[in-house]
Amino acid sequence: MILTDIIAENFLKYARLELRDLPAQGVIAIAGANESGKSSIGEVICFALFGRTFSLGQDDLQKLIRWGEPSCSITIRFLVNDQTHYQINRMLDRDGNHGVRLSLVETQESPLARGHAEVDEAVYDLLGYGYDEFIESYYLAQREIIAPQPHSQAVKSMAGLSTLEYVAYEHEQEIEQERDEIARLQTRIEQQDEALRELDLDPAAFGELESEQHALQANQVLLEEKGQTLETAFSGYRTMLPKRFSARRARGRARFFRFICLIGALLSAVSWGMLARLPDHPYSGGIESALKAAIPQWDSVQHLPWLLYAAGLFALLFILLWIRVATRQMKVNRLSEEAEGLSVALESALLSPLNGLADKLSAGDEASADETLPARIQAETISISELEPAVERIVDAMREQREILQQQGIRLGMAMQKEQGRLTKGEQIESVRQDLLQQRAGHERRIELREYALELLTGATRTLSQRFNRDLGESVSRTLPIFTDNNYQHLQIEDDLTVRVFSSQKRDFMDLEEISSGTQRQIMLALRLALAQALNQRTEGGRQFIFLDEPFAFFDHERTRNTLRALPELDERLSQIWIVAQDFPTGEAFDLSLACDRARADLVA
Question: Which whole number is the average pLDDT over 407-434?
Fold first, then answer.
C-alpha cells in the first residue's frame, strides 16, 4: 500500500496535521528536534490503520488526544496495488468512544466496513498483514533496533508459517478432543462391560432351557397319549367283556351239540354197517332189538336206509357246528386281543418313568395290586368292578401328572422368557459396545491421520523456515555491503534467527557482540528491510511504504549518507520510504521534506 493523504486533528501535539498528495516513490524525510512531533506522524499512520500505537496500550489510547481537547480524528487515504483508493476515518474522544470506518475514496457515503472488528478484518484482507507484522517490518518505531524473535507471530507470518502453525494447532486441538472423546467412549465401554459382567450370561443356558422345554412338551404329549390310550383301551375292554362272555357261551353250546352230532353220526353209521353188512352178528341183533324198543314201527328191511341218512345228517350238523365253534373261537381270540391292549396300556402306564409317575402310583396300599393288573387281565382273574377303580386311579394319577408337567412348563416358559430378556438385553448391550468400539476405532484412526499430518506439517514448517532464513540471508547479503561500504558482505542466519556476520578482514563469521554498535544497527536495519521485502513478497501487495523512525542513531555521517542513497535503490516494491531523523547530511535531496518544530502545533504540506 502507498499512502496518499494523512489528515489529523488534535492528535498528540498536532492541532492539525495535513499531508496531501504524498509522493508514491522516493524518500520522505521528516526532520526536527526532540519532542517536535516527528514520531507522532508514524503513530498517526499506525493508529489510523490498526487503532493502536507502538508506544501506548489499548487502555491508554485517550492519551493520543491533544491536551485540553475533547476528541481527535484521523483520516488517511492509501492505494492498494496502485489501483484502488481507500480511506480510513477514525474518531476518539475522552469518554472512550472510538469510531472507525473503511470506504472507497470515490464512494465515501457507502462505507465498506464499520466498527473495530469489521474494519480490522477488512484491512487485513486488503493488506495481507496485521499490526504485529506491520511493526516488525514496515514500521520501525523509535527504539533500539534488535534482532527479530523467531517465535514471534509476526516473523512466522512473514515466513508463511502462521497458516501451517494454525493448522498444526487445530490438529493438536482436534487430537486432544479425539483423546477426550476416546476417554469418554472408554468409560462407556467399561460401563457396558460391567453391565455384561453383571448379567453373567451363559451362552448355553437358553439352549438347555429350550431342550428341557422340548423334552417336557414331549413328555406331556406322551403322557396324554398314554392316558388316552388307557381310557380308550379300558372303554373297549368294558364293551368287550359281555361280548366275549356271550361268544364263549355260544362256543360252548356249539361244542356240546357238535359232540352230540359226532356221537349220533358214529352210532348211525355203525348201526347201519352192522345191520347191512353183518346182519347175523350177535351185536346186530342187539342193535335191532334196541331200535325196535326205541321205535316200535322199526322195520329193518324198510327203515335201514334211514340209519344211513341219519349218519349223513349228523355228519353235516357236526361240520356246521365245527364251523360255528371255529368262528366263535376267532371272536373270542379277537376280543381277548382287545383285553391284551388294555394290559399293554396298563403296563405302559405303570412302567412310565415320566417325572415320578411310577413312584406316585406305587405310594398307596393298592401298589402291589396295581402292579399285577396286566397279568391278571391276561389271566382273566380280575373283575370289572375291581379293575374299574384301579384304572380310574391310574388315569387320575396321569391327569395329575400332566397338570404338574403343565405347571413345570409354565415355570420353564417364564424362565425362558426371563433368560430371553437377559439375552436380548445382553445383545443390546453388546450392540452398543460394538458401536462404541467402532466409534473409538474411528477416533483412533483420526488421531493417527492427524499425527501423520502433524509430522508432515513439522517437515513443511522446517523446510519453509530454512528457506525463509536462506532468502532472508540472501536479501541481507545484497543490502549489507551497501550499508557497510563493502566491509561486511555475508550474514549467517540460524534457525533461531541468530545473526553472525562474515568479516572479510578476519575471513570468518563473527558474533554481533564483536562489532561496533553502529555496524550492528546497520546490520539490523538491513535485516529489518529484508523482513519488509519478505512480507511484501508473501502478500503480493504491490508497492509498499516503510516508516523508519530514527534508523541512523549511532550512524556516522558517511554511513548515514550511504544508507540514504542506498534505500531508494533497495527494492522497487518498497517505493515510499519515510525516514525520521533529527537532521540529515547537507546536500541530500529528498522527494518530500517535512520540518517539525516544537513551537508549532500544526504541520501542513
Answer: 91
